[in-house]
Amino acid sequence: MAGPPDVVLRSPRTVKPVLFVTGHAPPDRVGAFATLHEREGIEVALFGGRSKHGGARFVGELPFPHRYIRQHQTARLASSGDYRAVVCSTGGRVALGATWAGARRGRVPLILWTSLWAHPRSAAHAFSYLALRRLYRSADAIVTYGPHVSAYARARGARNVHVAPQAVDNAFWRAPVTGLPEDPGWPREAGVKFMFAGRPDREKGLGALMRAWQTSGLQAPVAALVLVGVGSSPPLSPMPAGVSCIDQVPGKRLREMYADADILVMPSIRTRTFREPWGLVVNEAMNRGLAVIASDAVGAVAGGLVRDGRNGLVVPVSDSDALAGAMVRLAGDDELRARLGAAGAQDVSAYTYDAWAEGFSQALATVGLSRAHC
Fold first, then answer.
1. What is the longest distance spanned by two Cα atoms in the chain?
2. Which residues pair with 21 in a beta bridge?
3. What is the reported pLDDT for 92?
4. Are 110 and 100 in contact (CB under 8 A)?
5. Most confident of 89-103, 238-252, 259-273
6. Helix count and strand count (H, E) for the chain
7. Would you say 284 and 166 are in contact if contact means Cβ atoms under 8 Å apart?
8. What pLDDT score does 1 carry?
């Protein structure tokens, strides 16, 4: 009698990772990269350079495969044959072109991750415009920060475009807070607390905000404005009454401030070299149920998260009178603040790390390289 047939055990096919080339892994991106790694298997190549991300640096071991490189080394990595696809951000003077060249040399699909919805107007950026336009047309897929960036890319020839919606760790920002902020500059006794959180750069609109505050006539004890992240050098000297400045703070302390604040103000302006791609402080504040006042130069407005009258108030960029009017309106209307804040908390719940990673998975699927299809 014949015995049972031999059973041949085969090892599962190894799927190559995706190379993800970018400058930094700031705290608000770490969870996003980790989620994408869990779904698709990635290796992040970090080339450094200037960062536009606010907040403290990430402390600890990054929870995904990564390496630190120089910008020119991206060409060798992309052409190495070790990766099934390459994702590259638009940052870095050398990294973008080197990654593109390496991917083409290695015949590996290239996915461009872009935040631009207006090209910077400087002498240095003028030379990059045609090259970037060519990349929009030649990339195998494009992943954007939101529909405002997608529209900009499509107008420049991009075809296979997907959105990875900007996200933060919603669970962290919604977590219970047990105490009040202990910073000496925090206006504990104010009836209504307006909060700005960001870098003290011109593009963040602090000039328009200071003019609006002075125009509004708001003052203690009715209201206060606190500028978080601007450091000890105030944007005006002397500072208007009712305005205080606080240094950059870690996430847990910032969460305490959101919990005790009432309104987030994000008055970003357009400059020759910058237009606010998104503004993740909006996501953070909405998770705490804050009403939001933002200019129409903020990506989170153009991208559809902040909606005027639904979950915030939107004002024309650099219009300090309109900004002052919005601040006075919210300071005097508790019911409106509560309604806008509740709607924001509901709306931002869809902006998750899973949704962000899904945008990249969809892009990979269109070139047949999502891990589910490998």
1. 100
2. 45, 88
3. 79
4. yes
5. 259-273
6. 13, 13
7. no
8. 40
